[in-house]
Design a protein that fits this description.
The chain is α+β, with helices and mostly antiparallel strands and 344 residues long. The chain is 32% helix and 24% strand. The strands form 3 sheets. It has a 5-stranded antiparallel β-sheet. Strands 3-2-1-4 form a 4-stranded parallel β-sheet. The chain has a 4-stranded antiparallel β-sheet with strand order 5-8-6-7, with helices on one face. Bound molecules: adenosine monophosphate.
Length: 344
């Protein structure tokens, strides 16, 4: 295994820089329109240029990747642009991490099951809009970036928003939504790495996201917000991430939560968690963490910490990004003969 491969998007620069730092050759699968961008960086050695990322499953590209003795590092763009089915069935190259977890992340029912199995505190889910008895966030299934989510405090406001979104063409008439208790507090994203080589859970970083346009609303006085109701649709599209350090007294629970997630994956998603994952949620008024989401792979918020984070600095004597942490794991897997356990 001598080359680290990834799609040119999301957190590719960080992944390939980390790979180079650990002595690997690198290859990027990039859209032709972005090839120039990636050629600006010396640590990208090989290029596979495509029109659409879904072409990655074509036999010529797979042959080239296998010829380079590549391991593919998955990230959000692989899932959104190639799709889970193709990744599971047609991507015949060594894949770092668990392919199996991807569908647990994408399917709302499976996701809920894995979060329950992990014993997380989660927001209450309302099966029927008639049961809404508090502020809820109503989520579209597979909504790109959370556009078209809305808040509802009872059946009447649910119905009103549903018809508003339907008549604006944002929501299809048969589209399913999930109604979740809205947790007021501080949203926090934990970037974990589970090392199979070391049998160790690591906290690599913490971030919070800036989401448009909801994070802009607080900058307006309430009377302006009330005026805006017509034609205003909230969106939770992530535009950036900012670093966060946690009160140290809260950290113990964070590790407990990460460990329970790893154990739940061992039980439900063989061969279990491998490498990066993220747990996402909100600290409520009591300082309890309520988890509403997980990602079973590297998240883009790790881009904050290309030269290490306050947490990775506690574990390593050199700057270690999540991308570099992946490369260290692969190198140590090769050296110890356990690389087979890291690939699916
Ligand atoms: P999601 O699509 O589940 O990742 O949600 C997108 C965004 O909506 C999150 O990043 C949060 O800002 C917000 N959000 C999601 N679920 C909740 C919740 N239960 N309570 C409060 N905010 C939430």
């Amino acid at each position: 295994m001598k080359t680290i491969a990834t799609l040119g998007s999301h957190c590719a620069l960080q992944i390939l820089k980390g790979a180079k730092d650990e002595g690997f050759e690198t290859v990027i699968i990039t859209k032709k329109s972005r090839e120039g961008l990636y050629r600006r960086f010396d640590f990208v050695d090989n290029f596979i240029a495509v029109e659409h990322f879904s072409e990655i499953t074509e036999s010529a590209h797979l042959a080239r990747l296998n010829e380079l003795d590549s391991i593919l590092i998955p990230h959000g763009t692989l899932i959104s642009e190639v799709g889970i089915k193709k990744v599971e069935n047609d991507l015949s190259i060594p894949f770092f991490g668990s392919r199996g977890i991807l569908k647990w992340e994408a399917d709302r029912d499976l996701k809920e099951r894995l979060m329950k199995e992990s014993d997380f505190r989660t927001p209450k889910i309302f099966e029927s809009a008639e049961d809404i008895d508090r502020l809820t966030i109503v989520k579209r299934s597979g909504a790109a970036g959370g556009f078209g989510y809305f808040l509802a405090k009872d059946l009447a406001s649910f119905n009103e928003n549903m018809s508003r979104l339907r008549s604006a063409g944002i929501l299809q008439s048969d589209e399913e939504v999930q109604i979740q208790e809205y947790v007021v507090g501080v949203p926090v994203y934990f970037q974990f790495f589970y090392s199979k080589v070391k049998n160790r859970l690591e906290l690599i970083g913490i971030d919070r996201r800036y989401e448009t346009n909801v994070d802009g609303l607080g900058r307006l006085p309430a009377w302006e917000q009330l005026e805006m109701k017509e034609g205003f649709f909230p969106s939770y599209l992530v535009v950036g991430n900012s670093p966060l350090v946690l009160r140290e007294s809260l950290l113990n629970y964070v590790f407990e939560m990460g460990e329970k997630f790893v154990e739940a994956c061992t039980r439900l998603v063989p061969p279990g968690m491998i490498g990066p994952f993220c747990i996402e949620g909100v600290y409520n008024e009591k300082g309890d963490f309520i988890a509403f989401e997980f990602s079973g792979r590297i998240v883009a918020g790790t881009n904050l910490y290309v030269s290490g984070s306050p947490y990775s600095s506690l574990l390593f004597d050199q700057p270690v990004s999540m991308g570099r942490r992946i490369a260290i794991e692969i190198r140590e897997g090769v050296e110890s003969g356990s690389i087979g356990k890291l690939l699916t």
